[in-house]
Every structure is written in C-alpha cells, then in structure tokens.
From TrEMBL:
Top EC class of this enzyme: oxidoreductase
Family that this chain belongs to: Belongs to the peroxiredoxin family. BCP/PrxQ subfamily.
UniProt name for this protein: thioredoxin-dependent peroxiredoxin
UniProt subunit comment: Monomer.
Catalytic activity: a hydroperoxide + [thioredoxin]-dithiol = an alcohol + [thioredoxin]-disulfide + H2O
Keyword Kinase recorded: no
InterPro entries in UniProt: AhpC/TSA, Peroxiredoxin_AhpC-typ, Peroxiredoxin_BCP/PrxQ, Thioredoxin-like_sf, Thioredoxin_domain
Superkingdom classification of source: Bacteria
Annotated organism of origin: Chlorobium ferrooxidans DSM 13031
GO cellular component: cytoplasm
A single MF term (Gene Ontology): thioredoxin peroxidase activity
Assigned keywords, A-Z: Antioxidant, Disulfide bond, Oxidoreductase, Peroxidase, Redox-active center
C-alpha cells in the first residue's frame, strides 16, 4: 500500500454515470478511497453495504467516500442502485489508480483496502487486508480515522 505521509497520486476516473471525477476536485475535503475487488461479489457487497450503513459516521467527520474497482461504469451503476450506495463508485478498468496507490494484489485484482487523504492531499492512513475474503471492521476504521 501507498505510504502514509506522502502526496496522494492524482487520478481522474469515470463514475457510475460516466462523469469524470478527479481527486483534485476534493482539495479542502477529506477523502476516503475504498479499493475493492469487484461489484456484486459476496464479501465486496457486505463491505460496501457496511460503508453505506455507516455513511453518516463519515459525513459527520467531513469525509467524502469514493469506492474504486476495475469494474465497468455499467457494472457500478447496477451495483450502486441495487444496494442503494450513497457514495460515488469509480471505474478503474485500466487499474492505473490501483497501481498508483499500490493497491493491486498478486493476481492483478484490487486489494480490499482503503486510503484516507486529508484536505491538503496527503495520505494520512492506508490499510490493506491480507486476506481478500475479509475486511476490517468499521469500528476499527473509524477509530483509526479519529486518531489520525
């Protein structure tokens, strides 16, 4: 994973409507990037629904949540609507953003990981689950965010 206390790599990716979204749009805001292997898989669905269920915890901390996987714009649209995800999903089909954040696993799939970026564009937290079939409990993530 990308090292903490480094500049977050810039990126521009399409969202589930095909609109291009750049990290630079969020300067002045905290951003949580959620890297995940794939839409509508059992663990990823549970993971992103956990973020959905706790979105107010991020909102009250002033954090913008962005989900990133290599799935297509169309896949993200269906997945986001099906599970009523209240945050933006970005399509990294070339895996360039996952590579830039060192979030690719040994099989070429995105790791289950997150990166917290502060208002100035610096990485303040980065974490990756070693086993792709689990993810870090939300209370642990929120505790790390509060301590950062």
């Amino acid at each position: 994973m990308i090292a903490e206390n480094t500049k977050a790599p810039a990126f521009t990716l399409p969202d589930s409507d095909g609109k291009m979204v750049s990290l630079s749009e969020f300067i002045g805001k905290k951003v949580l990037l959620i890297f995940y292997p794939g839409d509508d898989t059992p663990v990823c669905t549970a993971q992103l629904c956990d973020y959905r269920n706790n979105v107010t915890e991020f909102t009250k901390r002033g954090i913008v949540v962005l989900g990133i996987s290599s799935d297509s714009v169309e896949s993200h649209k269906k997945f986001g609507e099906k599970h009523q995800l209240p945050f933006t999903l970005l399509s990294d089909t070339k895996k360039s953003t996952a590579k830039a954040y060192d979030a690719l696993g040994f099989l070429g799939m995105s790791q289950r990981a997150y990166v917290m970026i502060d208002e100035l564009g610096e990485v303040v937290l980065s974490y990756s689950d070693l086993l792709p079939i689990t993810y870090q409990p939300m209370r642990d993530l929120l505790a790390k965010i509060d301590a950062a």
